[in-house]
Amino acid sequence: MGRDRTGMQRMGEGLFIVGRLGFVPSQARTAPTKERGTEVGMEEDNRMTLHHFTSPYYLPSILTERRLMTTLSEIEFPRAGEPYVLWLTTDPWKGDRREKYPSSPHTDGMDKTGIRFTLRLPKAEVMRWKWFAKERGATDKAISALNRASKQTMGNWYVIEREVPSEEWSEVTDTETGHEIPQSVWPAIAELLPKWQAIASTIQCGKGSVTWLPGRMIPAYNELVSEVLEIIRH
Hints:
Elements: E1 8-11, E2 14-18, E3 47-54, H1 59-65, E4 67-68, E5 71-72, E6 84-89, H2 97-100, E7 115-122, E8 127-128, H3 129-135, H4 140-149, E9 157-160, E10 164-165, E11 169-174, E12 179-180, H5 186-190, H6 193-200, E13 204-205, E14 210-213, H7 218-233
Antiparallel strand pairs: 1-2, 2-14, 3-7, 4-10, 5-6, 6-9, 7-11, 8-9, 11-12, 13-14
């Protein structure tokens, strides 16, 4: 759950990535009132404070574009096809993430909780994941499976069907240290975009939502993550 690109695992000579890497934004929608953002995280100006998590690996792309892009929802929607969303949560996941989610893919390979974007979004555009899934025709089996994978935290999850520009970011945080990533270092991270593109261009689509990063690119991936973290923590 909350996986715009979930964890990587070493398999033989390559790296599996659970989730797709195609960034395809979709149109915003207006949900029925009962399905919109509710009291959790609500502010008086009709915006909600929500969080989006990702890996340091994606920062060169995100900070070049200055926007968070939608991704495949990673669950089967037989009636309407698989929509593109940006995953959000009310849980800031402060403290020991690895203890909280000990068997999560986040703790092995690509740490998808390494970077936290805190966002201020219009409540009319935000929808609880559970309502969204039911409206789009997701099967009960698929919803239950996702709830189990998220350690029964599905009630914290929301989605929005559009990209979120930096104007709606209130903070970008290195969750390992708890320190905010200042805008002064964003350009230096963005300069690593060619390295990110070289890695992303090698990814091959696999069956279902699994993609494959060739083994020869794993050192480049590890190097990129190290460079990003060095800039952040210097």
